[in-house]
Write a structure and sequence with these properties.
The protein has 632 residues and is of the alpha/beta class. It has 24 helices and 16 strands.
């Protein structure tokens, strides 16, 4: 709204003084010239702009709610339609958001209930937000306890004494537990590489042995094989502590690796189709995750995402922002990222000229969501993620995002129809007024007539939020560009002026002299008044016809037809506006506005003018689309 207003204010500052001076000097009525100049300013102003923009956004918000999308920030709708890159986490977006613990293995790669018991103590006693893997560990443990494979005593004999919460730098979390008999353990769970870094020993065949290079390679190879199958792997380590000792991150050292857990979060059945649809809509999908790159690449392959170009968090540390922009545009997967690194990727993509959306639901996603053009979250997300989002999904599925993008583009397209068509139409009318003022001995239209014309046209445009949108407008990102308004105005405004001038010539030299019986210069005062009123009424009626019909011509790339036509509300409002203003000169209300009845022959001439106007507008539209690639 601001950018459109600035453009139109610039035109007002240029045109209004010129119109005032021309009419003042040529007509000699400075008060009338001042009123007419003010009416020109009003005529240039699309008064309904804030209301129609808001109505389009509100209509889009209602439409999105029916597609399981709740809009928190109404301005996010247009950004959703303009988005050309969607960054998203992997878990729950590409996958089913239902993590299952597939394996609990000791260091030798064998199923071991003791490893699961230690993992249970870590997941059950930690007081932070339990993630899906914690829930999977707890559920699996309860299943084995119910079947008798795990003894109740193994789970209840230990009580928590302290903990070291998870953070994205350490990528692990620890819980200290005691059995009340002098045995205190620090149990740590985390990413395999990070756990190997703090482990000096490994439990092999029931004995604690030094963690040799060979053992490390074996653990990494086993974890890598599981990753390539799409499983996420966490390692478990423990360490004896002194009774009653306070723990800190420094205690996570010289630990004993006892095994690892393998989790499976299979991709959703709808994800592959949703990714393909987003690509068809011109949106690149990029995965930003803290997870392992091999797991992420496996899932990406299953859902049709290219996983060849992968950037790791460690890679980002070696790139400046300019280098990262180039690398980020090529990469489709970013793995092992911290929250700050997610935010940085989103920020540099925006700085690279992209409109970026970020979809997430966790605490670690909040910075990236705030950095994005539109933050997308789900109703089951943590509070800080929902607070950071502009759009909330009632279903965590990329299909819902694609539906939201389509609605966002519909909203944008209908806003653009009003902004561009009205701006070009008003510009054409005012250009016509400027030309007429220089040559006519009277005002081409009275101030009150301009305002009435503008009012009825703008009211008819209030139906645009409910208009149909062509498929071409939905197939590409809807990016706002204020310069395109100027291009549109300068292309289609003069076309309107050309037929206004033709109308002037027919009215001034043919129709009005025939009606009053003499040219204007040779007529007496009464005949001159009738001449001027007839001329003003003729242009008034021609203006509502051309303004309203051009709305149908420029609302899409195609010529109005069964395949591309305005919605019923738009047809009713625009045709109603034409009928109203064409009929008003024959009523007492019209007389109050200085309008007079027109002879029947005028409408035959008007039909020819309208047909010519439609033909030339269609040609100009084709040339415009050929040059600039799109219309609105």
């Amino acid at each position: 709204v601001n950018s459109v207003s600035h453009i139109l204010i610039g035109f007002m500052l240029a045109m209004v003084p010129v119109v005032f001076l021309i009419n003042g000097f040529t007509k000699g009525e400075w008060l009338g010239a001042a009123l007419f100049a003010v009416s020109i300013a009003v005529g240039l102003t699309p008064e309904m702009l804030p209301m129609i923009v808001t109505a389009c956004l509100a209509k889009g918000s209602v439409a999105l709610s029916k597609r399981k999308v709740v809009v928190k920030d109404i301005n996010s709708i247009q950004n959703l339609g303009a988005m050309d890159i969607l960054c998203t986490d992997k878990t729950g977006t590409l996958t089913q958001d239902k993590v299952v613990l597939e394996m609990h293995l000791n260091v030798e790669g064998e199923e071991d209930a003791r490893v699961l018991c230690r993992a249970f103590l870590n997941s059950n006693y930690q007081t932070g937000l339990k993630n899906l893997m914690d829930v999977a560990v707890i559920e699996r443990t309860h299943e084995l306890r119910a079947s008798g494979e795990i003894a109740e005593e193994d789970l209840t004999k230990y009580q928590k004494t302290d903990e070291i919460p998870f953070d994205f730098e350490r990528r692990r979390m620890s819980v200290a537990v005691t059995n009340g008999k002098g045995k205190t353990l620090l149990i740590t769970k985390g990413a395999v590489e990070e756990m190997l870094a703090v482990s000096a020993f490994a439990e092999v065949c029931g004995e604690v042995q030094p963690l040799t290079g060979e053992l490390k390679r074996g653990v990494l190879a086993r974890a890598s094989a599981l990753n390539e199958q799409g499983m996420r792997v966490l390692a478990i380590a423990q360490k004896r502590l002194a009774e009653g000792a306070e723990v800190s991150a420094a205690d996570e050292a010289e630990m004993v690796l006892i095994g690892y857990l393998a989790f499976l979060d299979p991709p959703k059945e709808t994800t592959a189709a949703a990714v393909a649809r987003l690509h068809e809509l011109g949106i690149s999908v990029k995965i930003l995750t803290g997870d392992n790159e091999k797991v992420t690449a496996c899932i990406c392959r299953k859902v049709g995402l290219a996983g060849e170009h992968i950037l790791l968090g460690s890679d980002l540390e070696n790139l400046n922002d300019a280098q990262l922009v180039a690398a980020a545009e090529k990469a489709s997967v970013f793995a092992k990222l911290s929250p700050a690194q997610k935010e940085r990727v989103v920020r540099v993509l925006r700085e690279g000229g992209h409109t970026v959306g970020f979809m997430g639901d966790g605490i670690n996603d909040a910075p990236a969501m705030r950095a994005a053009d539109v933050g997308i979250s789900v109703d089951t997300a943590v509070d800080i993620a929902k607070e950071s989002a502009g759009v909330i999904l009632l279903e965590k599925d990329l299909t819902v995002v694609a539906d939201g993008v389509v609605e966002g583009r519909k909203t944008y397209a209908n806003m653009m129809k009003y902004i561009k068509i009205t701006a070009s139409s008003n510009f054409g009318n005012m250009l016509s007024v400027l030309i007429a003022s220089a040559f006519l001995p009277f005002l081409p239209m009275l101030s009150v007539q301009i305002i009435l014309l503008n009012l009825v046209y703008d009211v008819s445009c209030t139906s645009l939020p409910w208009d149909n949108v062509e498929g071409e407008s939905l197939s590409r990102p809807a990016v706002w560009e204020s310069r395109s308004i100027l291009r549109f105005m300068f292309c289609f405004g003069p076309v309107s002026s050309l037929f206004d001038i033709l109308t002037y010539i027919l009215l001034y030299f043919v129709l009005c002299p025939a009606a009053v019986g003499a040219p204007f210069a040779a007529a007496d005062a009464a005949a001159q008044a009738q001449f001027a009123a007839l001329f003003q009424t003729g242009w008034f009626v021609e203006s509502i016809f051309t303004q309203s019909l051009v709305l149908h011509m420029l609302r899409g790339k195609r010529f109005p037809s069964a395949r591309s036509h305005a919605s019923l509300p738009v047809c009713l409002f625009t045709l109603g506006g034409i009928a109203l203003l064409a009929a008003v000169p024959y009523t007492p209300v019209g007389a109050a506005f200085g309008l007079v009845p027109l002879p029947a022959v005028y409408f035959a001439l008007l039909a020819a003018i309208v047909v010519g106007y439609i033909a030339l507008t269609t040609l100009a539209k084709r040339l415009y689309v050929r040059k600039f690639g799109s219309l609105l």
